[in-house]
Amino acid sequence: AAVTRSGVSSKDVAKVVIEGTWDELLNEGQELPLRTLEYWGSVLSREDQRDPRRPLSGESFAALVEPIMIDETRPTLWAMRNDTAPGLNGLTTRDIKSYPIGVLTDYLNVLYLSASLPAHLWDARIKLLPKCVRLIKPTDFRPIAIASVIIRYLHKVIVCRWSSRLKLATFQMASLQRDGCLEASSVLYGVLRDAIQRTRGLAAVLLDVSKAFDSVSHETILRNAESYGAPPHLLRYLGNTYQASRALIGSDFVCCKRGVRQGNPLSPILFIMAMDEVLRGA
């Protein structure tokens, strides 16, 4: 119904359904609930929590900070979708695909080597995506931080390097290059079938971490990054970028003092490092 009422052409209906954007069409033109921007501004700028724990002992991956090569940047760039939203500087994926790959690679190396991103690239704009049909309160939205495509490009390269070396708990399914839904469903089916065959009791625990991406401490992010192989230069890069993190919400910039950015390719892998420690201790 959302699709047919929105005026979307018949040839685009399948794309809208597959991408799950019908909820945006249904809510298009609706006003934000009262004080939504103020609420999310306060969430993003909330003071960080200290994490005095020492990093876990682990191997440091020097390869994560080696010079970036064209063999890495070319496939990463062409895997990026052309229709992704631009950041505040208006640069699109299609734009950077028109640049010489050697120039782009050199530029990424300069940014990475500096361990400090310029504000016009790292500053993000917040897009509030609806999580439901009836938008009643501020928490009915999910804030997506959209930085420059150049930064998303660089972070995709870092993620490709890091994810291939990560050793996570066996049952860590989220945000990895694996069919997590199929594997998790198969494990659950096996556990239930075993319990039925043996006629024994079974208990399950569901832990819903509210606003998890928005609440994780920056100190925890850095601690876990070091625990999972980040060498000193990458830690400096992460520390500097999170310290300088700002986002435009409405017409005002807020300093993001905690959390990982939803919409940043690095965020899922940094978040699952924190959750992996929880899984290992369960």
UniProtKB/TrEMBL annotation:
- Which residue numbers delimit the Reverse transcriptase domain? 110-282
| Superkingdom assignment | Eukaryota
Q: Identify this protein by name.
A: Reverse transcriptase domain-containing protein
Pfam name, any one: RVT_1
